[in-house]
Amino acid sequence: MNDAFDLSIVIPCYNEAPRLPRTLAATISFLSNKQGRFEIIVVSDGSKDNTIAVAEEAFKNLPDHIRGTAHEYTPNAGKGKAVKVGMLMARGERVLFMDADYAVPLEDLASAEGLLNSGNVDIAIGSRAMEATKIVEHQSFIRERLAKLFGLIQRNYLGLRLMDTQCGFKLFTRDAAHRVFGAVKLTSVIFDGEMLWLAKRMNYRIAEFPVQWTHDQDTRIAYNAWRAIKVFRDMLIIPFIHVDRRGWGK
């Protein structure tokens, strides 16, 4: 099998052994019925369980048009690093990153592909805030409200005219994926905001599409006061870590 793929799917993981089998089974089933050549890239962000072994087991006896690879590094650095590692490894003409909990079903990929097929969009991002979005299982009331407040602050501070920057289901052209993630520096969950800020400065065209989204209570990203402060600090420094010697964003 050569290294030419129509689509790469990147799945960042941290201690995802319990949930990964279902997600990979659904992903492989979806791609098995789709025309083209595909790769699935699992990236373990310093997991302490058998995430990699689970992925390698799922990748045995794949159909000829699908390749699966599993990669890991230590120590744990954050979701942003795992996504960046996978996106830069990807060899598909289009590259999707999605969460390991399968919060958004791959059937919603058709909407993202339609946007890129139009020729007017380089990056299509899933949105939980659009009118046609269907939320199957909500986050807790407090967490949902805090997320909306943070999203509002982030969009205004970074100048992003988007309704939802944090949904973990985003499709890129290969050029956009490699250029943008080649410049990403943050490793925390705020990498989405940094990535979209960079994409805007690089003049990539971004559009949102509605998704069906299900919150998994068994989240790997625990929020507390210290983490909230760190994420907020990371958001504030985004424009400053991309300033070159001439004083403007790279």
Write the layout of secondary structure elements.
Blueprint: E1 5-13, H1 20-32, E2 38-45, H2 51-58, E3 66-73, H3 79-89, E4 92-98, H4 109-117, E5 123-127, E6 134-137, H5 141-158, E7 169-173, H6 174-183, H7 191-201, E8 206-210, E9 212-214, H8 225-237
Parallel strand pairs: 1-2, 1-4, 2-3, 5-8, 6-9
Antiparallel strand pairs: 4-7, 5-7
Shape: globular
**Helix percent band:** 25-40%
- For the record, the CATH architecture stands as Alpha-Beta Complex
Write the H/E string, N to C. EHEHEHEHEEHEHHEEH
Q: Describe the biggest sheet?
A: 7 strands, mixed
How many extended strands? Answer: 9
CATH superfamily: Spore Coat Polysaccharide Biosynthesis Protein SpsA, Chain A
Count of helices? 8
**Average pLDDT figure:** 90
Estimate nothing, just give the exact number of structural domains.
Answer: 1
Placed side by side, the strands forming the largest sheet appear as 3-2-1-4-7-5-8
Separation of the first and last Cα atoms: 37 Å
Which strand-content bin applies to the residues?
Answer: 15-25%
What name does the CATH topology carry? Spore Coat Polysaccharide Biosynthesis Protein SpsA, Chain A
- What Rg do the Cα atoms give? 17 Å
Q: Give the class-level CATH name.
A: Alpha Beta
Low-confidence stretches: 245-250
Structural class: alpha/beta
